[in-house]
Write a structure and sequence with these properties.
A hairpin with a 5-residue loop joins strand 26 and strand 27. The chain has 1008 residues and is of the alpha+beta class. Helix 6 packs antiparallel against helix 7, helix 20 packs across helix 22 and helix 20 packs antiparallel against helix 25. 33% of the residues lie in helices and 15% in strands.
Length: 1008
């Protein structure tokens, strides 16, 4: 222990107190001393520097205080003359007190910021225990008499003022320093972000595709000199939002039935199916780094950030002028980009930090879009990264929800020449055909004509230099060098003589992020993506090192991980990448009917009343497919979904399987079946099938009166036409082809009043009363037909209440009736087949007759199968034309199904069709071309093979195909291949299954 130094004060030390301790290390072995691990040691650098760079105490110490002289260089440390245990009276305060910190607080303090602390000289316990060597006695420096105020403070010292603690800086993990609207700031650059809408690609004519690519290439060329950041991301489909919307658009759903799923249960099942199918919505963003911040702007921004503020107003005004130019370039045809909103940019930032993870729930809570430096912590606070130095993936963990994802980044390597759009798909959109979402990040430098030509000249000089080296060594140069040189000369000529879009070049790095719930799943998906690109696109995807740095590239503002795998290409090839290519079809307000099956997977929703209520178009929809193509199943599924929403549905199914829908528990109390083969006499009376218009359906005034009179006249003319056609179908074909038959029938129909109360018996009586034997003979032929049980449906008046039912679902069938083959002459039809033709003709009228009753604005749906039987008769064609034209006025969705597209095209209603479903068509190019005409897509370009490959079964498997595929054209003209999937409705597929089974108990549920 060190001996106390001579001091003019008293020799008896004062009682030791915690506040009198000079250094905590002197009490190291005291049993009452604090734990050494809890002792904080002050750095010498923390002491305020005095004049000449020497460290002095706080200003609370007496101003005349002097410190001991420093030890000589290389010599032993100077020994203190102050007693080790106490401060004698009159001595200056201890160093801890001079710093304004109480010794107790000094003992309890922890090291701030985790930094290493240096010990003060002359205070360590090991130095106190060793034998004293040659020491130098330090005499206290003589000091002048303190001022009265100083003596007063020394006699009655004030309480030490606590030291102000240093606030730790926020550990921001991003290069971004500020976000203002759609602008992101880093220390040296500013980037403007734009949202790029999706564009239709599938089933589009090649000239339109090429025009789109050329327009986008010109926009890229207009951005020469800037760095672009293309981000293609995805967002989980908002299933809950869709459910709320469809519930809001369904004011009167069917009431619940005990023991059956309710309307709420139906929506919940659909939401679970959407979430379980991993459906996502694609989003494309384009960032343009257009401003290198000046030294003044950077200094001002650093100064303002110190006060919690962002960029200056003058800098914002300069940026706004530049942004307006980019608005003009990107807003034209091609990209049609617009400024990203605050919510969209926040989503992009969250998604970039947490790649492929579930989105947070607090996005968009604040809508002004202003983020200061301290606020940027919110982007990274939830996500933790775990990576190995040479790991093949990076584990991302949300520390709040516990969600974990393993992410691997692939980069685009060598590429073969691509023929887009003739042969290949867009190469930055091709990955979306896989069933799991992925992320795209491309950093691209757009080089103008001068930069591109300079780069080309440099490479040409390198090629010539290599050729000279071979020549100097007497060796033959590889022929590849000469080919590269010729290619460079050709490209150089295009640059100097062509348009700016021909000379612009894109140098960039293209990354693809793949995620999985485990490392094994992630690597398996990486293997599948790599094989898909290698096999289909002839593009080599590489799995490089430095995965954590590559992942950071997806975050806006972060630097490029490395310069490897730089891809140089013309801007047209970059435009052909087309990450914003879409495969959407349908609308987001209808029922879920399946998903797209093209180059991406998107849910397909269809509201059959959307064309009339929103687009103000016809409600006619057409279904075309060969037997077994799934058109009847889809027709029944749409009828079921509409009936659940309270729509009045009428389905005509000649074969009868759709009648099983009425037996489903949730529909049984609200459904009925009309089997025409067992109905009463007069059920299909032709006069009664065409309703008389009501005056309430037309506007008031003279114009309304005129329209009403015209509608009544048209109804009467339609009745006469229908009765004449039905009578011609009931007589033998040889008699029907005679000219006199048409004349007699026309005379009789004109004589009988064309009102709903008239009957076919009135026509027979009129023919009997005509002069001559031909009229009487024709009447006898009709009476001979009336003796058959099925023919009685056309004679007499309809039963009361048949046409005025308010059932939510009505299915009209002709179970057991044999339909004729229209390819065979009528002379060879059997009596039953001959009666099937007028029955189908009038059954179509009966189905639509029910839809014309009631409120005009009430939603109604009618589904007509076997529509090809209507094509050969005048009344049939006029009926479908009237149905298509009246559908908008009556809010009527009319679905017409046929096996041959020629039947629909022959009805001259193609221009009135709003929705088209084309299923599997036999490998007949003529029929396939007609179907493509119905879809309004180009023929003879390869799309015929697509129709032939729909719902293709695996020849090596004996199992039934569990789905059906269609090519759909919606009311907005979008065409896409879809896969029908209504498996979320319990029992629906079993009720709609029409395939004969050897063992019904072993029948699997079919998905469409």
């Amino acid at each position: 222990m060190e001996e106390p130094a001579n001091d003019p004060g008293p020799t008896t030390p004062a009682p030791r107190a915690a506040s009198d301790v000079e250094s905590p290390f002197l009490n190291l072995f005291d049993p009452d001393a604090p734990n050494p691990s809890a002792v904080s040691v002050l750095r010498r650098s923390e002491l305020p520097a005095g004049p000449g760079g020497s460290q002095r105490g706080s200003t609370s110490a007496p101003p005349a205080q002097a410190s001991a002289p420093p030890a000589q260089a290389g010599g032993p440390p100077a020994q203190s003359n102050v007693p080790a245990r106490a401060n004698p009276p009159g001595r200056p305060p201890t160093q801890g007190a001079a710093l304004g910190v109480s010794p107790n607080a000094l003992e309890r303090a922890r090291p701030a910021d985790g930094a290493r602390r240096e010990a003060r000289p002359g205070g360590s316990a090991p130095e106190a225990r060793k034998k004293p060597g040659p020491t130098r006695t330090v005499t206290p420096e003589r000091r002048s008499e303190p001022a009265p105020s100083s003596r007063k403070r020394a006699a009655a010292p004030q309480a030490p003022r606590p030291k102000s603690e240093k606030v730790k800086s926020a550990a921001v993990e991003l290069a971004l320093t500020e976000i203002a609207g759609h602008l992101t700031f880093t220390a040296h650059a500013v980037t403007a972000w734009y949202w790029v809408p999706e564009v239709r690609w599938a089933f589009r004519p090649d000239p339109e595709r090429e025009a789109l690519i050329d327009a986008i290439a010109e926009q890229y060329a207009g951005l020469a000199g800037f760095r672009l950041h293309i981000r293609r991301t995805s967002r989980p489909f908002p299933a809950a939002e869709w459910a709320r919307q469809i519930d809001r658009l369904t004011p009167r759903p069917l009431a619940g039935v005990a023991g059956a799923p309710s309307w709420g249960d139906h929506l919940v099942a659909a939401q679970k199916h959407l979430v379980g199918s991993n459906h996502a919505e694609g989003r494309t963003y384009l960032g343009v780094t257009f401003a290198r911040r000046s030294l003044g702007d950077s200094f001002s921004g650093r100064l303002l950030r110190a006060f919690g503020k962002g960029s200056t107003l003058s800098e914002r005004s300069k940026l706004e002028r530049a942004v307006e130019q980019f608005d003009e370039v990107l807003g034209a045809f091609g990209m049609r980009g617009r400024r990203a909103t605050a919510e969209e940019l926040e989503w992009l930032l969250y998604r970039s930090v947490a790649l492929c993870m579930d989105p947070p729930t607090h996005i968009g809570a604040v809508g002004h879009g202003q983020w200061d430096t301290g606020d940027l912590l919110a982007l990274t606070e939830e996500i933790e990264r775990y990576r190995a130095p040479y790991g093949s993936s990076v584990k991302l963990v949300n520390r709040l929800t516990g969600e974990a994802k393993h992410v691997a980044v692939l980069t685009v390597g060598r590429m073969e020449p691509l023929d887009i759009p003739e042969r290949h798909e867009p190469w930055l959109h091709f990955h979306e055909r896989l069933p799991y979402p992925m992320e795209i990040s491309s950093r691209i430098d757009i080089l103008g004509q001068s930069d591109s030509f300079r780069n080309l000249e440099q490479r040409l000089r390198m090629i010539r230099s290599q050729q000279l080296d071979y020549l100097e060594h007497g060796m033959d140069a590889p022929p590849e060098l000469e080919r590269l040189a010729k290619r460079a000369l050709v490209i150089g000529d295009e640059m100097t003589t062509g348009l700016p879009v021909d000379s612009a070049r894109a140098h960039g790095w293209h990354r693809l992020a793949v995620a999985g719930s485990s490392r094994e799943e992630c690597l398996e998906r990486v293997r599948r993506v790599t094989q898909l690109y290698s096999r289909e696109m002839r593009i080599a995807l590489q799995h490089p090192k430095q995965q954590e740095q590559l992942i950071r590239e997806f975050i806006p503002g972060e630097p490029i991980a490395n310069s490897g795998y730089l891809r140089r290409m013309p801007v047209k090839l970059l435009a052909a990448a087309l990450p914003q290519a879409a495969s959407t079809v349908g609308d987001h307000r209808g029922d879920l009917i399946g998903r797209t099956a093209g180059t991406s997977r998107r849910p397909v929703f269809l509201d059959l009343h959307f064309p009339m209520e929103v687009r103000e178009r016809s409600g006619l929809g057409v279904f075309v497919a060969e037997p077994g193509g799934g058109k009847s199943t889809l027709l029944g599924a749409l009828g079921y979904l509409a009936a659940r929403r309270g729509v009045r549905v009428t389905l005509l199914d000649p074969s009868g399987p759709l009648a099983r829908l009425t037996a489903m528990p949730e529909l049984r109390p609200y459904s009925r079946v009309i089997n025409l083969t067992g109905s009463e006499q007069g059920t299909l009376a032709p006069y009664a099938l065409i309703p008389t218009p009501s005056r309430d359906e037309f506007p008031a005034g003279s114009d309304g009166d005129r329209e009403f009179d015209i509608a009544v006249s048209n109804a009467r003319a339609e009745r006469r036409m229908l009765v004449q056609d039905i009578a011609s179908m009931l007589v033998p074909p040889q008699v029907a082809r005679e000219a006199s038959t048409a004349t007699l029938l026309r005379h009789a129909v004109r004589t009988i009043p064309a009102e709903e109360t008239s009957t076919l018996d009135d026509v027979v009586e009129c023919l009997r009363g005509l002069d001559g034997g031909e009229g009487r003979e024709l009447a006898n032929l009709l009476l001979d037909t009336a003796e058959m049980p099925l023919a009685l449906l056309f004679f007499g008046a309809p039963p009361a209440g048949l046409l005025g039912s308010d059932a939510a679902l009505t299915v009209i069938t002709m179970a057991g009736l044999r339909l004729p083959d229209l390819k065979i002459e009528r002379e060879y039809w059997s009596a039953e087949e001959a009666l099937a033709l007028p029955m189908l003709h009038t059954a179509h009228r009966l189905a639509v007759r029910r839809c014309y009753s009631g409120d005009m604005h009430q939603r109604k749906l009618v589904g007509l199968d076997e529509a090809h039987f209507m094509e050969g008769w005048r009344s049939g064609r006029s009926f479908l034309v009237r149905l298509a034209r009246d559908s908008r006025k009556w809010n009527l969705a009319a679905l017409v199904a046929s096996q041959n597209p020629k039947d629909i095209l022959g009805l001259d209603v193609q221009n009135l069709v709003s929705t088209v479903f084309v299923g599997r068509i036999a490998e007949d190019t003529e029929i396939a071309s007609e179907a493509l005409r119905l879809l309004r897509v180009p023929t003879d370009v390869g799309y015929e093979a697509v129709l032939a490959g729909l719902s293709a079964a695996d020849g090596a498997s004996s199992a039934r195909l569990g789905y059906r595929e269609f090519v759909v054209r919606d009311v907005d003209g979008r065409v896409q291949k879809i896969r029908v999937d209504v498996s979320y409705v319990e029992g629906l597929l079993s009720a709609l299954d029409t395939t004969p089974l050897g063992d019904p108990a072993a029948a699997p549920a079919q998905a469409g």
